[in-house]
Each structure stands twice: as structure tokens, then as C-alpha cells.
Write a structure and sequence with these properties.
266 residues, 42% helix, two-stranded antiparallel sheet, alpha/beta, five-stranded mixed beta sheet, 2 domains, Nucleotidyltransferase, domain 5
């Protein structure tokens, strides 16, 4: 549902700008707390808060119409598998899911005006998202692998924070928590001693070396996953209808309209 080819407006209409900022500002709370499926949309619309035009306003209104249409979508925790090792998510390729895991993804150079990449991360606990973010990277990278490294590094920092919190709460799972990436070269670079990305970009090299260090210390367990199984895919790019439906399932979003009607009738 996210329109990714918007461009800044050159002439600012103050009334339009105010309305646009109100619409996009109100989306922030929803995208952060209850609807990860609109995180990318909010991230893109937020880039034009100072110079919106009619196309941006239409996109913001479209986002709100989508939310009204899907207002009964709710995050759902899933059922534990019989062996107590994960959670079953019906209708998805990634099944069963670990009790706790993270996923990071990037869309290389997709911002046409700056050629900066989009990235996103998602963390799930008990089959339900507990933390997610979609954003535009602060620096330009020169390859998909560099963009994926940047995204994975940011997600890994959050991943370590969550693990430290779980330790303080004395909460432990039976398996080692994992953070997934769908770029094999990136996974190899941070997990194999013989592989390293040769780059002259200092900030990329720092992220690379920090990730390798975190993996060596056992702070982060990075594993490859296919793009079809990547639950953070919809946080970095607009998806076709069927893929978006699958993305919604992976997020654990469920239409509870029938349940609400049943409660009302009872």
C-alpha cells in the first residue's frame, strides 16, 4: 500500500501542509504500537512533512482509508508447537517460528532523490511482534550487501538490548535466539572468518567489524532465511497484493471482526 515513487513538492500550500502533517502525525502512534504493516507507509510519508503536495495528501488519505477498512486487524500471539520449541503460524512458509527471534532487511538505493536505502527490523516473541521499525538509512551505500550490513547492524543492537532485558527479568528460552537475514553474502561476511567485505566506506566497515565481533562473542546468532520467509520484507518495500497478505500473516495480524460480532451478540 506504500507509494514509493513520491517526490517533494516545490510550492508549499500552508493549508495542505497543515492537514498533511496532522494525517501523517496521527499515523505515527498507530504504526509504532499496533500496526506494523503500515510502518513503511508512515516512514515514506514522513519524508515530505515540510514540502507535501496533492499526491502526498492523496497517499496519506489512502493510508487512512486502508486503516478504516482494516480497523479490526489485531496482533495475535500464536499457539505453541507440541515440542515447545516454537510457534505455529498457519499459512506462512516460515513455520514453526522460534519463541524469540529478530529479522532485518534492506531495499538497496530505493530512494530516487538521495539513493539512500530503506531498511527495517522486526522482533517477535511468542509468535507476536514486540518491536519493529521501518526507516531510511542515513548514509548512501554502494551495494546491496553494504545496505544489508547497515540494516543488520542496527537490528543487532536492538537484539542485544532485548536479550539483556530478558536476562534482567530472568526470562530464558530453550533455544538460542536468532536474527535472520535474507542476503547470503552478508551472513557469510559476519559469520565466517575467511570472508570480509572490502569497502572504502568507513561507516560500513565499522558496522561490519562490530557485527563480526558480536557474533564471535556469542551476543548475536545470525542465520540466513529466504526472501519468501523474511518477515521484515514488507518493512522495506511495497509488496504485491498476495505477498502483502502473507506479510500480514507473518506479522500475526488477524481480522477479529467475527469475534467482535460474537461478543456483541452474546
Amino acid at each position: 500500500m506504500a507509494e514509493t515513487n513520491l517526490e517533494p513538492n516545490t510550492v508549499v500550500d500552508k493549508a495542505l501542509k497543515k492537514r498533511y502533517q496532522q494525517l501523517v502525525g496521527s499515523l505515527a502512534y498507530i504504526s509504532v504500537f499496533t500496526r506494523p504493516d503500515i510502518s513503511l507507509t508512515h516512514s515514506i510519508l514522513s519524508r515530505y512533512l515540510n514540502n507535501p503536495g496533492e499526491q502526498h495528501l492523496r497517499a496519506a488519505i489512502h493510508a487512512w482509508r486502508f486503516l478504516v477498512k482494516t480497523r479490526n486487524f489485531a496482533l495475535k500471539a500464536s499457539a505453541l508447537t507440541p515440542d515447545n520449541t516454537g510457534y505455529s503460524i498457519p499459512g506462512t512458509a516460515f513455520n514453526p517460528e522460534p519463541i524469540f527471534f529478530g529479522a532485518a532487511d534492506a531495499s538497496f538505493a530505493d530512494d530516487l532523490s538521495t539513493r539512500r536505502s530503506s531498511d527495517g527490523y522486526l522482533f517477535k516473541l511468542f509468535g507476536m511482534p514486540i518491536d519493529w521499525k521501518a526507516t531510511k538509512q542515513r548514509s548512501v551505500t554502494k551495494s546491496t550487501t553494504e545496505a544489508e550490513l547497515y540494516a543488520l547492524s542496527r537490528a543487532a543492537s536492538e537484539f542485544i538490548w532485548w536479550n539483556n532485558l530478558f536476562d534482567q527479568l530472568n526470562f530464558k528460552t530453550d533455544i538460542t535466539p536468532v536474527i535472520y537475514c535474507d542476503n547470503k553474502q552478508t551472513v557469510g561476511i559476519v559469520t565466517k572468518a575467511t570472508e570480509r567485505l572490502q569497502t572504502k566506506l568507513k561507516h560500513v566497515d565499522i558496522h561490519q567489524l562490530w557485527l563480526r565481533q558480536a557474533v564471535e562473542r556469542g551476543e548475536v546468532n545470525v542465520q540466513w532465511i529466504s526472501t519468501a520467509q523474511m518477515p521484515a520484507d514488507g518493512l522495506t518495500k511495497a509488496l504485491p497484493k498476495q505477498k502483502h497478505v502473507n506479510f500480514t500473516r507473518q506479522l500475526g495480524l488477524e481480522d477479529i471482526t467475527k469475534r467482535l460480532l460474537s461478543l456483541h451478540n452474546n
